[in-house]
Amino acid sequence: MERNTMAYKSKQFLMFAGPALILFCMVIIIPFIYGLFLTFTSWDGVSADKPFVGMANYVSAFKDAYFWSAIGRTIIYSAFAVVFVNIVAFFLAYLVTSGVRGQNFFRAGFFIPNLIGGIVLGYVWKFVFNRAFVAIGSAIAGGTVPSLLASTGGAMFCLILVSVWQYAGYMMLIYVAGFMSVSDSLKEAAMIDGCTPGQAMRNVTIPLMRTSFTTCIFLSITRCFVVYDVNLSLTKGEPFFSSVLAAMHVYNKAFTYKDYGTGQAEALILFVICAVIGITQVYVSRKGEVEA
Amino acid sequence: MASLSLKGIQKIYPNGYHAVTDFNLEVEDKEFIIFVGPSGCGKSTTLRMIAGLEDISEGEFRIDGKLMNDVEPKDRDIAMVFQSYALYPHMTVYDNMGFALKLRNVPKDEIDKKVREAARILDLEKLLDRKPKALSGGQRQRVAMGRAIVRNPKVFLMDEPLSNLDAKLRVQMRTEISKLHENLGTTIIYVTHDQTEAMTLGTRIVVMKDGIVQQINTPDHLYNKPCNLFVAGFIGSPQMNFLDAVVGIKGDDVTLTIGDAVLKVPDDKKQPLIDGNYDGKTVVFGIRPENITDNAEYIAAHPDSTFKSKIKVFEMLGAEVFLYFDVEGTQLTARVEPETQLRTGSDATFAFDMEKMHLFDKETEKNLLYSE
């Protein structure tokens, strides 16, 4: 067979990309399109009937005050979590690349929280907040100290803290790669040029790690915006629905309140918000990226 | 500009490895010093100790009499050109060159003046807005030089700055660096493993091996009076030819026997062999390729320094010819005139210019005819 014929090229394409393309369509594209279709129905999530309702679900979603307050809460949660995850990850990466003794042990140790599933993590930390911290606080202060999870502000704080603990180790690995990609001769040149360690970090190392920042911020934004497992196991949206994040609201709407169409429409809106923020961040961060 | 003093400098790594042993050197103002030697000889380590990028394990390093052992690199007033150029990839050529001045809070107009002046000297004026990625190897090398020049430091350190360039560009940049040294009148310490660079650039050369200084002297002196077998073999291209020779002393007559050939040692070179009681001992006879000739008149006039062989390889380089042949199982190289009639496979008679010979002790490897 001629190697430059269309038939040969198509066969070659299907051999290599076909399996992945089929899987991608089956688990991403088709469910997405079907989900999009469901946003135009009043399906309850159970029955065989899927009555077409046009844009009614979107109108309902835009009028759903609980949804928008969950979105607002998610934005606040994400803003704090993204900032702290990246700050902590960056400093952990700096620590484990600065030549301290046992740095490989620390790298593994900091990464472990990421290997524990969100549900398990949430229950472990729920025990820590409800029992361990309460017992320690009570022993120090006397009397009974309430759990942080029992107050509205405290629950959000706990969610952010656990997310930072969970994600920082993973992001640390990306920052470690970033630190290692900056050649020693550049750092030495900066020292000879007159940089203090802080100036070398600010003027040379950090600008050359923009790729790591872009990746880590994108990953942490997208993860935080759709967080559900830790939200469920740690706070369950309590107290008084004060820690219900967007993904939990969407789930409740679709499966608890059997309003699948509206829930799916809200999920699509959440996806669009998440995509716009994520793509904008990547677009802005990519400007001026250079190879170290 | 400055003078440097290195006394008893040692570099010992935590695992006990001696990278540099007892390094002593006094560098005068405006000197162009070359550290040369094979890979792993400690030349770059010594340069990095001068820069402050490596700690000095023992010894004293001074610039203009001031002890520098514990002074930070930024406070030593030195500039360095790295082998990889180490240009900041996120900065333009202009910013790369002005970065050190900016850190020292030099006024903007003065930075601009100095950067543009350096760019003019190095022919970089049209490239100031470009980033390093958009430059060729030679241009990057010039920017690295420019970054050093604008600071007007006491000492320039250069760590194999030409090793990433192609052969033609390397020759061109070698000339540029030489001109720069003339124009700026700076003290330069330059590391290379290329003995041609060392010979053409340096006012003095430090030859190193295994962390130990072998000889420090001018290029001319190193070439003509190497202190030991290593320096003799390292300096010069093609390298010096070496043959084992047995010394014979009969009264005032001193001869060297190499296989069947008996060579008469000139009068002015006899004494060290007589004084050292080398009669019957084997020494290493060294002769540079240009001191072996196929000139018929010379051969006729010097019958006691001739030998015969068969040409194995003939290399025509245009202005000269290299002839490769064996003597007593050792391959020798002769650099002869391009008019030579000898070709691969020819039977040849050669003569050594015995006035230019070197003799080395077989055990100590020291040159028996010259001392420092």
Describe this structure in words.
The complex is a heterodimer of chains A (292) and B (372). By secondary structure, chain A is an all-alpha fold. Chain A has one domain (64-286): MetI-like fold. In chain A, 76% of the residues lie in helices and 0% in strands. Chain A has twelve helices and no strands. The mean pLDDT of chain A is 91. Chain B has 372 residues and is an alpha+beta fold. Chain B folds into two domains: 4-234, P-loop containing nucleotide triphosphate hydrolases (Rossmann fold, 3-Layer(aba) Sandwich); 241-298 and 305-361, Beta Barrel (OB fold (Dihydrolipoamide Acetyltransferase, E2P)). Helices cover 26% and strands 33% of the residues of chain B. Chain B is built from ten helices and 20 strands. Classes of the chains: A mainly alpha (292), B alpha+beta (372).
Task: Identify the notable features of this structure and list them briefly.
heterodimer; A: 292 residues; mainly alpha; MetI-like fold; 12 helices; B: 372 residues; Rossmann fold; OB fold (Dihydrolipoamide Acetyltransferase, E2P); five-stranded antiparallel beta sheet; 26% helix; elongated
Query: Can you tell me the CATH superfamily of chain A?
Result: MetI-like
Give me the count of strands of chain B.
20
Class based on secondary structure composition and strand pairing of chain A = mainly alpha
Total individual domains of chain A: 1
What is the level 1 CATH name of chain A?
Mainly Alpha
